[in-house]
Amino acid sequence: MTSHSLDVPDGPDWPNESGYAPSLRLPMSTAYRFLQRARREPNAYFYAYASLLPYRKRQMSIRQRMHVEYVLAQAYASDDNVPEALTSLEVAVAMADLLQEPEAQGQLAYLAGAVLHGHLDLPTAHEMYRAALDAHYVYGGKQTPKTIRFEIDLLTRLAGLDCELARFDHAAARIVQARRLLSQGYSTDPEQEGTLYWLEALIAHWTGSPDHALPLAETAETFLRRDQHRPAAGRICTLIGEIALDLTQSLHMEPATSFHQSLAQRAHSYATQALTIAEQVGDPSGVGIADLLRIRCQGMLGRNEYSISHIDDIRQTAIQMGDPALAGRAMMAIGERHWKQGAFDVARAHYGEAQRLFARYSFRALQVWPERGLLWPDAS
Question: What does the pLDDT read at residue 146?
Answer without folding.
Answer: 81
